[in-house]
Specification:
The complex is a heterodimer.
Chain A (H helix, E strand, L loop, with lengths): L1 H13 L2 H19 L5 H8 L8 H26 L7 H13 L3 H35 L3 H12 L2 H4 L4 H16 L1 E2 L6 E2 L13 H20 L18 H23 L4 H16 L11 H17 L1 H6 L6 H12 L8 H4 L1 H32 L4 H20 L2 H19 L5 H24 L10 H31 L1
Antiparallel strand pairs in A: 1-2
Chain B lengths: L1 H22 L16 E5 L6 H15 L7 E5 L6 H8 L7 E6 H9 L6 H4 E10 L2 E5 L7 H10 L4 E5 L5 H13 L3 E5 L3 H9 L5 E4 L1 H9 L3 E6 L8 H4 L16 E8 L4 H16 L1 H9 L4 E6 H21 L2 H5 L1
Parallel strand pairs in B: 1-2, 1-3, 6-7, 6-8
Antiparallel strand pairs in B: 3-10, 4-10, 4-11, 5-8, 5-9
Classes of the chains: A mainly alpha, B alpha/beta.
């Protein structure tokens, strides 16, 4: 109960004029940055962190944290409307989201994503409030072997992302893997396939790749196909509001995936993207309406959106209670804490209660602000994609170029984006799906790193992958998921035989 | 008409280019001193929030707030390629007195160990070394080890079992690992993480036995009683209660295991000597301010240092030589080829 009292005190500080302004600023900036193709939480926080140098740490963290979880809302927008994921967790959202847009229901998809984001985010914050330190301790149990198996489990989703044309899907996976191997390898520091390019030493940047494959390839397609229509035809506001039945369908999904997302967010390095993939897999397996997922279902939007917002909240648990980063974005925030003169570590909660609790309080407030802002934006966004392609094309091109350049202040990334765009267009012509490529590109480097670290620990002895309960849990899950179609078929056959 | 318009346009372009053409050496006054005519940029070859970023922002902030330089210093992040992108960008601005670089000795080692086409001293000149960033080895407080002797004893009894958590290869963290292996004669497993934050979390979770960290990277956990520094790689103990109890390897009888990381300011290669002198004086003024001593050194657990250009270059060359020799001796380069 002491937590509640501290939280109330936190609310008192968070409601001060400058902190509210910071929260609103963070929410607005995050929504815009998230919606910009390619620009996600990590870029947003990196861009704004220098501006907070010398600011009051509480106000600064409220603005940056607000920006971080707000990008999770914004990231879904362009994924749903244009099939361009705003940031990496939104790759999953685009699977069902864009299909809904093509069906003429972009409003429903946007509402589903916003509501489930809010539910997921709030669940994450509640868990953080009640059991932050405990949660962080639990996250520490995940070392390299456990994380390797977790990523492997997420990779099983590739099975149905491949599409009907399996060789084409496998080709896409291979291309993703090839992109992922470029750069300095994570175990020995050897450069691979960098062709002497300094800019390729740290690998192909995610932002130009996504912007190229999803955004720019779409532009090429629009120009070459030459139709002057709109992406979606006129949408009635009436079609945007989810029905009672749909809400009832989404609510348990959002809550379930919110809880899962929080836990994934706490694990070191896993983060929002992994959680989005995981929750999608889980729903695809256990949901009553699982057959609809992948064809343009609101559940397919709600699951990843709820869990990625929850993961963003969960990532704060290790940051605040132990002073270690939960993911890439919180790693930047950790630097921020030091920059503002705080000492991140287990004493932060007791020594800086005002800082910690007003941050947590501001997250509750910020989530409401995000929800309201997103609801205001939805009707405008829905209309925006009804504009003619003549207007849309130059805007998307400008956004693609700016997003790639802002990535590292280098023209190299713009050129890379253009190349990826052309490659993406060719893949579209050849009916090669891009999603498996992107999934491998995101997850394969993580898998490689965790596997190499595990082998480093034991000098190549694979027994480390069976070292405890968590490992076995994932091994069983992976086996179940991989062989469930086989078992199901076998079972059905047996049933048929019996019936005969 | 058209021709006149073209002429006017051309004239306008030429006039607007005048300041550019006039720049040349005009920043050097007649008495040979350098005067800043515009802002200078400090390039950070890493992302915001890291050690190089914080030191660059501190330098800029102290200089700007106290008007120690004639114009402001601004910080620009150019991350990528484990600092290669930033270093090579500064290298492309050869001779420019307005392009500076946040100096960290780890980056210099990377350029040499990884065999860059152009190395640190082809791309940059060190203006001054301004702080020591010492390196410690930490263990978990509730883990099996509580002193460095425990660690060494275990490693000797169980060769190839001790898990040594460290950040990326080819830098000073690996140097510490190799020196320990060689001079103590123990066999350990090098587990590579992306960042020292990841090393700290693997150490806290008990996934590695020891972790190599700068005091600034673990001070929160040390104060909170989760981690304990058992030894420092510096030739002297680190000042302060938290790290002061950790002995040096020199005290333990391993005088060869001794090195320090350092931070400071570099500039584009071949900037005019007068400009180099100007920034050298600026750095000297900065390290003397109270802000530098308290909000930077003390807060981040760094040790005070100052070496101007000539001394710093010589010191760094020797340091690089020592590192390269060690890496050569342990066969690191053979491993790669």
């Amino acid at each position: 109960m002491e937590n509640i009292a501290l939280l109330m005190h936190g609310f008192a500080i968070a409601f001060s004029l400058e902190n509210m302004a910071a929260a609103i600023f963070g929410a607005v900036a995050g929504l815009i940055i998230g919606a910009m193709p390619g620009l996600g939480g990590i870029t947003g926080v990196s861009l704004l962190l220098p501006l907070t140098f010398g600011m009051n740490p509480t106000t600064a963290i409220i603005a940056l944290a607000g920006l971080y979880y707000s990008t999770m809302y914004g990231g879904a927008f362009s994924a749903i409307l244009l099939n361009i994921p705003g940031d990496s967790p939104a790759i999953v959202t685009s699977l069902d989201g864009y299909k809904l847009t093509q069906k003429g229901l972009p409003g429903k998809a946007l509402n589903a994503s916003t509501v489930s984001s809010f539910i997921g985010g709030t669940i994450g914050i509640i868990i953080l409030t009640i059991s932050g330190p405990l949660l962080a301790e639990a996250g520490l149990a995940f070392g390299a072997p456990e994380l390797a198996l977790l990523v492997l489990f997420a990779l099983t989703s590739i099975g149905w992302l491949l599409g009907d044309d399996i060789p084409a899907g496998l080709l896409a996976t291979a291309i993703g893997l090839m992109f992922a191997t470029i750069g300095v390898d994570p175990a020995l520091g050897q450069t691979r396939f960098s062709f002497g390019q300094i800019n390729l030493l740290s690998g192909v940047s995610f932002i130009p790749l996504v912007v190229g494959f999803f955004g720019f390839s779409q532009v090429i397609d629009m120009i070459i196909s030459g139709e002057d229509g709109a992406v979606a035809t006129k949408v009635r506001i009436r079609d945007c509001v989810p029905t009672g039945k749909e809400i009832k369908m989404m609510l348990p999904v959002s809550i379930r995936e919110g809880i899962i997302g929080t836990f994934v967010g706490v694990m070191p390095g896993a983060g929002a993207t992994t959680s989005a993939f995981l929750s999608y897999i889980i729903e695809k397996r256990i949901n009553k309406h699982r057959d609809e997922i992948g064809t343009g279902s609101m559940i397919g939007v709600a699951a990843p959106e709820s869990s990625n917002n929850a993961a963003a909240a969960g990532a704060f648990a290790p940051l605040l209670t132990l002073g270690i980063p939960g993911g890439a974005t919180t790693a930047v925030l950790l630097g921020g804490l030091m920059m503002w003169g705080l000492q991140p570590g287990p004493l932060l909660f007791t020594e800086q209660p005002d800082f910690v609790w007003s941050l947590i309080a501001s997250m509750y407030i910020g989530n409401v602000i995000c929800l309201i802002l997103a609801f205001i934006c939805i009707p405008i966004l829905v209309r925006a994609i009804s504009v003619s392609k003549k207007v849309l094309v130059p805007i998307i091109i400008a956004v693609c170029v700016i997003a790639s350049y802002a990535n590292s202040n280098a023209m190299f990334d713009v050129v890379l984006m253009l190349i990826c765009g052309i490659l993406g267009y060719l893949m579209k012509l050849a009916d090669v799906p891009t999603t498996p490529m992107l999934l491998t590109f995101v997850l394969a480097p993580m898998l490689e790193q965790y596997v190499r670290q595990s082998f480093d620990m034991t000098r190549g002895n694979p027994s480390i992958f069976f070292r405890g309960g968590i490992c076995w849990f994932f091994i069983v899950l992976i086996l179940l998921v991989s062989f469930s179609p086989l078992i199901k078929n076998f079972y059905l056959k047996m049933k048929d035989k019996k019936a005969n | 008409m058209k021709r006149i318009r073209m002429m006017v346009l051309l004239a306008a372009v030429l006039i607007s280019m005048m300041p550019l053409m006039a720049q040349g050496n005009s920043d050097i006054a007649e008495d040979g001193t350098f005067h800043m005519s515009k802002e200078a940029r400090i390039i950070v070859p890493a992302n915001p929030g890291g050690g190089s970023d914080i030191s660059a922002r501190m330098i800029a902030d102290i200089s700007n707030r106290n008007h120690l330089a004639e114009k402001n210093l601004v910080v620009e992040n150019r991350p990528g390629g484990a600092c290669a992108v930033g270093y090579n960008y500064v290298g492309s601005q050869k001779g420019d007195p307005y392009t500076l670089l946040s100096l960290h000795s780890g980056n210099i080692i990377v350029s040499a160990v990884n065999g860059w086409e152009q190395q640190w001293d082809d791309l940059t000149d060190i203006i001054a070394i301004m702080a020591w960033d010492d390196v410690t080895l930490c263990v978990r407080t509730d883990g099996p080890f509580s002193t460095i002797d425990d660690v060494i004893e275990y490693a000797k009894a169980n060769p190839g079992k001790l898990k040594f958590g460290s950040d990326q290869r080819g830098n000073t963290s690996q140097l510490g690992f190799e020196l320990m292996k060689k001079y103590i004669g123990i066999d350990m497993n090098y587990v590579q993480y992306d960042s020292s934050g990841d090393v700290a979390s693997a150490l806290l979770g008990g996934h590695v036995d020891v972790g190599i960290l700068n005091p600034g990277e673990c001070i929160g956990q040390v104060r909170g009683g989760l981690l304990k520094p058992v030894v420092t790689f510096a030739p002297e103990r680190i000042s302060g209660d938290l790290f002061g109890d950790a002995p040096t390897f020199v005290e333990l009888g391993y005088p060869e295991i001794s090195y320090r990381e350092f931070r400071g300011l570099s500039g584009a290669k071949d900037m005019p000597p007068a400009a180099l002198q100007y920034y050298e004086d600026l750095c000297r003024k900065i390290v003397e301010t109270d802000e530098w001593k308290t909000t930077y050194l003390e807060a981040n657990n760094l040790q005070p240092a100052f070496m101007a250009h000539d001394e710093a270059m010589e010191f760094t060359r020797e340091h690089v030589e020592q590192v390269m020799q060690t890496f050569e001796e342990v066969g690191y380069f053979d491993l790669l080829n």
